[in-house]
Specification:
Layout lengths: L18 H37 L4 H31 L12 H15 L2 H11 L1 H8 L3 H30 L4 H16 L4 H22 L1
């Protein structure tokens, strides 16, 4: 354990951010995105690996390219989250310890994420994420370039499915481990629970909207 005075904290004034601050925040988001999204993507990785094993005598490099491309999309998304965090610090919605300081903003984020859960766009992206073999059959491309492009496309679909849920981290506190665990659980259940995706998605949306309203009304 280190004393608080020795710990790295973001400058209170967003105009005082240095390159090291941006780098540290980006690395934090990159690790968080990988940790939160990889568990839900395992079924897709397994289906891709099985199909590659059936089609090619040596396919390990294709599996690696597919996973790396998938992660690359989330690494780019982490840049967006870093920029958003910088802006929220500038508006004083986040403290130097990356905790939310504005209950109305927190409530609005919950409500917005909940509403997105109920939209057709969310449902369309989710259905693709839930059917790995369907994605493979419709999007299959041969060779190393094909594996990489398929990984990029699947990663983009996952971003479309889960971007609003990731914003909840700004509402609960960027470094909130319990928040990370609950969002990861929701994302994984939506994508892997047999026959329950729409129910889980809608229940999650209603819960998030109610939570957001509760925060605003009690604030």
């Amino acid at each position: 354990m280190r004393p608080m005075s020795d710990m790295w904290m973001l400058p209170a004034d967003f105009s005082s951010w240095q390159w090291m601050d941006f780098g540290m925040v980006y690395m934090m988001w990159a690790v968080m995105m990988a940790a939160m999204m990889l568990p839900s993507a395992v079924p897709m990785f397994m289906v891709f690996a099985r199909v590659c094993w059936q089609r090619y005598p040596v396919s390990h490099h294709l599996n690696v390219l597919f996973v790396l491309a998938y992660l690359l999309v989330w690494l780019v998304f982490s840049m967006v989250m870093t920029w958003l965090q910088w802006q929220l610090h500038g508006l004083h919605f986040l403290s130097p310890m990356m905790e939310n300081q504005n209950e109305r903003l927190a409530g609005a984020i919950f409500i917005g994420a909940g509403i997105y859960q109920l939209t057709p766009w969310k449902n369309d992206f989710l259905q693709i994420c839930r059917t790995p073999m369907g994605f493979i059959l419709t999007e299959w491309r041969e060779g190393a370039y094909g594996a990489f492009s398929m990984g990029l496309k699947h990663g983009s679909i996952c971003v479309g499915c889960c971007w609003a849920q990731m914003l909840i981290m700004f509402a609960v506190g960027v470094m909130n481990l319990l928040g990370m665990a609950l969002i990861t659980l929701l994302v994984t259940l939506e994508k892997t629970a047999p026959g329950k995706s729409q129910l889980i998605c809608r229940m999650g949306g209603i819960l998030l909207i109610g939570w957001g309203l509760g925060i605003i009304l009690m604030g």
